[in-house]
Amino acid sequence: MAYENIRLEQEGAIATLFIDRPKALNALNTKTLQELESALKSLPADVRVLIVTGGGEKAFVAGADIAEMAALTDAQAQEFGALGHRVMAALEALPIPTIAAVNGFALGGGSELALACDFIYASEKAKLGLPEVGLGVIPGFGGTQRLTRVVGRARAKELIFTGDRIDAAKAKEIGMVLEVLPADGLLAHCRAVAEKIVKNSPLAISKAKQVIEAGADQDLRAANDIERKAFGDLFGSEDQREGMKAFLEKRPATFTGK
Ligand code: DAK
Question: What range does the record give for the signal peptide (predicted)?
């Protein structure tokens, strides 16, 4: 499907979703969010890892679109916030791994989009931050919650209260970003990680993701119960039989995700 502000490219089982509105540094306006919602709903079934990145040279996403937000009424702002939340939730709920490749500015809604992915790799040129309080609002697409879960309360408060823009090295130091790569090696790194992932059982990966997410907000005992049940569920699957058979036959496994 053809979109105006995003672009989806697929190579084998790995798809790359570009937020591609470079004239506004890929800022998220309503149209872009609607296109994202639609693309996430209709991802081809054979995509097994999704990389999310920014089109153009300068930005991942420079935030929600300030020009559009400036004119919103209360009711429209609620609607805009709800749309943004739906997009972030849809991204987070995908049963496949999602990797944010932060290639430049990831501010406000841009950091929130990256945080809704499973993990973030950043280029040396990346700048991340949540500057909303400087605009008289707070992060509106889940940033107060997702950032806190990733870096802890004190770091999240520091970033959100100051609105500081941090570089990739600092973002790595606080655990927001996993690795920092040279700008021209960022996507290659993400694809290499994705290639490793697609060799494994899609069924097991999606279960692992589901269990990690479901357990994160529970106490350890309840979380381990979720794991125990999911572990049992995988036995008898084609992937489990194939994975173990392939090991015993000393050959690489061919997984079907069933
Ligand atoms: N929105 C709209 N346009 C943007 C934009 C943005 N966030 N960021 C950049 N642009 C546009 C610029 O206006 C400029 O457009 P023209 O003037 O060329 O037409 C073009 O992109 C290039 O930007 P610059 O000329 O400014 O480029 P520089 O390299 O000089 O500066 C910059 C790059 C990223 C430092 C600067 O553009 C900047 O500070 N941008 C704004 C960053 C920011 O504050 N982002 C956070 C936005 S707040 C909520 C829902 C959501 C949210 C909050 C509440 N509710 C529903 C309650 C989320 C809020 C945010 O994300």
Answer: none
Pair (104, 46) in one structural domain:
yes
Confirm whether 258 is domain-assigned. Answer: no
- Ligand 1, atom 34: closest residue by C-alpha: 62
59: pLDDT strictly greater than 80: yes
How many domains does the chain contain in total?
Answer: 2
108 lines ligand 1 (CB under 6 A): yes
Please give the mean pLDDT across all residues of the chain.
Answer: 97
Q: How far apart, in Å, are the Cα atoms of 31 and each of 25, 36, 64, 142, 150?
A: 15, 9, 11, 19, 29
112 has catalytic annotation: yes
Ligand 1 contact via 129 beta carbon (within 6 Å): no
Q: To test ligand 1's pocket by mutation, which of 5, 20, 21, 25 has the most ligand atoms within 8 angstroms of CB?
A: 25
| 132 catalytically annotated | yes
In terms of domains, do 57 and 137 share one?
Answer: yes
pTM, full prediction: 0.97
In a domain, 253, yes or no: no
